[in-house]
Amino acid sequence: MIKLDEIDKEILTLLGRNGRTSGSQISKDLTTVMNKSMTDRAALQRIDRLENRKIIQGYTTILNSDIVAEKTSIMLLLKFVTSAEPTKIDKLNAYLSGSSFCLTAARLSGGGGIFDYICHLVFDTERQFYLELNVLYRAFGDLISDHLVNKSTIVKQVPYIISFDRTLEARKKWMSSIKLGLEEIYESKKIKDKLQQFVNDFMGCFGARYVCLWLIDRDADELMPAFFSDIAGDQYEYEYVSIDKININLLLETMKPVLSNNIARDFKITIVNWITGKGVKSYAGYPLIQENRVRGVLEMYGDKNFSSAEFELAEVLSSELAGELVNIGYGSSSPVV
Questions:
Q1: Is 59 inside a domain boundary?
Q2: Which of 122, 132, 266, 312 is deepest in the core (most CB within 10 A)?
């Protein structure tokens, strides 16, 4: 139990209104509101103690609501399975608490409500939200039985952190270069070299540990790993993880991306040398769709969490690749593999 006296509570109230309030202003306000005389130095010492006790854990900026209105704001309602385990709900709480895109999250109870949980999520684009929803279901699919999506407009704003990620901007520039390379595939006589270069560039762009482009082998009518980035270890062990554990068949059937930032948990993968040796933890698999059929799969593994924006950028490049496979005649009489 955190114990605070009345002065501490009033200081927190003042800082909650304006985190830049000076020590002299706080001492004046305490005198006015509580009739308590306190020097500037004493007020600052109080704040230092609150910070050291981790009661004040940081300061943020409240932005003009018009700025946040440019984002995609979603109220997501979740219904849990009847046998929902408290430990699983705690993990959901921890996941959303650590996610910068989640402004608030709360349990719902009483009133005969249909849903058990509500969270307010903000993204740069609507597509980023749906990719993150994919990740959420991958991680907590055994907890969530249903959900409802409501677009929202912020009326009263809570502190929201806008990330100016320079690495993300660099990736967007890198993407432009990769797209130019894709456009050259059609005119190139070295199609295999160009596709291999795409795989290598894709890995570098997202800082992935490993990337693989799977294509249909028309002779065997099977999905085969056609182009790899470099990997230290057993290729067959990697294929076993991709097919048997992550289940590429699910991706082929649903024609939707398969995304995860914790593959050991989400796919119930036990100790595998290839994963533990490379420190792999995240995964993104995208279907390459041509004429309403999946003709290939582009997948990447990482040793860090992929952000919603990165998932979206990777999906854009996957779509570009699928389009170029059509241009070079893949799926017709001109074989790629």
A1: no
A2: 132
**The two three-digit tokens of residue 330, written as one number:** 């893949």
Q: Which domain holds residue 47?
A: 6-52
First to last CA, the chain: 65
Whether 187 is covered by a domain: the verdict is yes
Decide if 232 contacts 220 (C-beta within 8 A).
Answer: no
Q: How far is CA 33 from CA 10, 63, 117, 159, 161, in A?
A: 9, 27, 38, 25, 31
The tokens describing 289, both together, are 């769709």
Q: Report how far residue 139's alpha carbon sits from residue 94's, in angstroms, rounded to the nearest whole number.
A: 12
| CB 211, CB 250: distance < 8 Å | no
With respect to residue 334, please indicate whether it lies within any of the assigned structural domains.
no
Q: What is the CATH number of the domain that holds 142?
A: 3.30.70.920
Cα gap 79→94, rounded to integer Å: 18
**Reported pTM:** 0.68
User: Tens-of-pLDDT digits for all 337 residues of the chain?
Assistant: 567 888 888 888 888 777 788 888 888 888 887 777 888 888 888 888 888 888 887 776 666 556 666 788 999 999 999 989 999 999 999 999 888 889 889 999 875 678 999 999 989 899 999 999 999 999 999 999 999 999 988 776 655 444 445 465 666 676 677 766 666 665 556 778 888 888 888 998 888 988 999 987 766 667 888 888 876 566 777 787 887 777 787 788 888 999 999 888 888 777 677 777 778 889 999 999 877 878 889 999 999 999 888 899 899 889 888 888 777 766 443 444 4
The three-class DSSP label of residue 187 is: coil
Cβ contact 228:200 at 8 Å: no
Instruction: Report the side by side order of strands in the sheet with 102-107.
Output: 102-107, 117-123, 72-80, 144-151
